[in-house]
Amino acid sequence: MTAHTDVVGSLLRPPELLQAREDVAAGHISQAEFKAIEDRAVDEAITLQEDAGLEVVTDGEMRRLSFQSQMTEAVEGFGEVDLDAFLWGEWRGDSDMGEWTLERPEKLGVVSKLKRKRFLSAEEFTYLRSRTTRIPKVTLPSPGLFVNFWSDEGSISVYPNLDAFLADVVDILRGEVAELIRLGATYIQMDAPHYPLLLDPETRRFYEQRGSSVEMCLEMDNAVMSSRPSGFPKPGGSEVTFGFHLCRGNQGSRWLTEGGYDAIARPLFQGIRAQRLLLEYDDARSGSFEPLKEVPQDKRAVLGLVTTKSPRRETSEELIARIDEASRFFPREQLALSPQCGFATSIIGNRISVEDEKYKLRVIAETAREVWG
Fold first, then answer.
1. What is the pLDDT of residue 233?
2. What is the pLDDT of residues 287-325, one digit of tens each?
3. Phi and psi of 151, rounded to 5°?
4. SS3 letters across 65-105
5. How far is the C-alpha of 362 from the C-alpha of 356, rounded, in Å?
6. Sign of the CA dihedral 128, 130, 131, 134?
7. Which of 212, 280, 350, 373 would disulfide-bridge 340, Cβ 3.0–4.6 Å?
8. Model pTM?
9. What value does the mean pLDDT take over residues 20-27?
């Protein structure tokens, strides 16, 4: 896939959709009424991206509580999960936002063997596919993210160890990939913010104490991306493109960690089987472009130069200068441009307006046309 523009996944949820979520939970509207409002929000998200001139579109993740919540909603075994399960951590912000800490929920953990009730994103994809002529992308959470749901105290009675639990997570995601491909998906993205979290000593300690590592997570991600439905060509063909998104946390215009990709670039960029690496590069927190030297020549590096965390309006001139800088380390024709992350990784959304969002997507498309034609 040669697209020089991309979008990470989520867009700001419209107020009427957020209100409808509350209303359907309280029994004030029916599921059918809620579904109509949800569908309309997806339609508007598709139009917004197409009008901006993007080659790739998503459904804006309008149907999700969080970018990874479809796993806990579609699969039995996680117990009762609310938004805090996806938000806990020590969040950093600018001088206006400030820092925010949410402790890990005490009851977070696996309560029974995982069992899929339905496919995670098949409905999202089929709806999106039927409403756009652009490249429809569906996003899935990386299996390594679910280390967060493991508790030695609360989960050991269900699974003998973390590996056994994650093996079921991988199986569920492999089945999801096979179903999406069967339905015609040609672009699937794995969201994997836990890799950059290893750059921070505190968050790295959390993962290491549970036995998680870059190597283990890579093996799981590659296993998911190697899944194919029966009769489909072997992995490595051009029929399906996998994206791999790396960021440093994104909630309410805050972030979790800082630092360049240097410490993880070689094993990660060279080891992952995805064809497109969507990398956060919107400010100094992301480090230099030098780690791009570790990206194999058969991959495309999608530069997340446009921030979703603030209303700052980037210009084409500014973005072209940064693309020029990145091209010192990786071929210009193998580069692409995107936002640095989603605009609303959960229903909370970042501190920007819809007009800011539209501007940022337009400047991505306009810049790409100037650089690549």
1. 63
2. 999 999 999 999 999 999 999 999 999 999 999 999 999
3. -135, 120
4. CECCHHHHHHEECCCCCCCHHHHCEEEECCCCCCCEEECCC
5. 10
6. positive
7. 280
8. 0.94
9. 97
Amino acid (one-letter) located at 170: V
Here the tokens at position 67 are: 């970018």
* Residue whose token pair is 């094993």: 267
List, for residues 244-280, the tens digit of each pLDDT value. Answer: 999 998 888 897 888 899 999 999 999 999 999 999 9
Question: What domains, with CATH codes, occur in the chain?
Answer: 52-372 (3.20.20.210)
Q: What is the mean pLDDT of the chain?
A: 93
Q: Are 191 and 132 in contact (CB under 8 A)?
A: no
Tokens of 68: 């990874």
Per the CB < 8 A criterion, the answer to whether 204 and 256 are in contact is: no
Locate tokens 């993210």: which residue?
Answer: 145
Q: Which two tokens stand for residue 191?
A: 């969201």
The phi and psi torsions of 149 (rounded to 5 degrees) equal -95, 0
Largest Cα separation within the chain, whole Å, is: 58
